[in-house]
Structure prediction request, 263 residues.
Amino acid sequence: MVHFVGAGPGAADLITVRGAELIRNADQVIYAGSLVNPELLKMCRPGCCIYDSSRMTLEEVVCRIREAEEQGKMTVRLHTGDPSIYGAIREQIDELKKLGIDWDICPGVSSLCGAASALGIEYTLPGVSQSVIITRVAGRTPMPEGESISSFASHHATMVIFLSAGLIKKLQTELIEGGYGEDTPAAIIYKATWPDEKKVLCTVGTLDSVALSEGIDRTALIVVGDVAGTGDYERSKLYHPGFTTGFREGNEDEQRETESGSF
Prediction:
């Protein structure tokens, strides 16, 4: 059996309870060494075989898994954040299917959640943005047609941009070309939730200069949109005293008092 496990955004104690238990019981752990916190490997039991996939090809990873299966051993394939976001798991799963090897996925806390907690923000702020676009700048891995940064920027939704810290000048240009004003709030979060986390508030127009001055060119997320600023937003309807839900009846008098500022 192969378990794809999300290691979380960085801090070792942000792995899920299920993920930690799978690591403790694994006969073999293949982990993304460039991004997974090595503290998690301390959970491995004595005798567990540990491999760093940053030095391996897909074929080598599958070979190790196949060898473990032939010996009746259980493998944990440990990915950073949540495996479903830029985890390259589909190609691994397809190879396992060809070999008739069973697998499952244990979700993890994504670094996009870690970045929001570091900044103390809400991605879906009422009256500001109710959508989050997760994307990356086209580099050696091209983007499909219609998924350029500039095309997404035209929506003015919250954007969380992965794998682009080394291409921030290009990112900044495309964001502005897509319609974001240079004064649009932005933030760069280096190694969210790690002990050496660094967060920098800036604007779209200063993304490149700030990244350069802070020496950030990898292992960072970029958040773009008004949710990263301190501007006005609407109160949530869900907790408004005048809003009726399936669990409570709204009170129009309280709503009027709230709107008049006396609540």
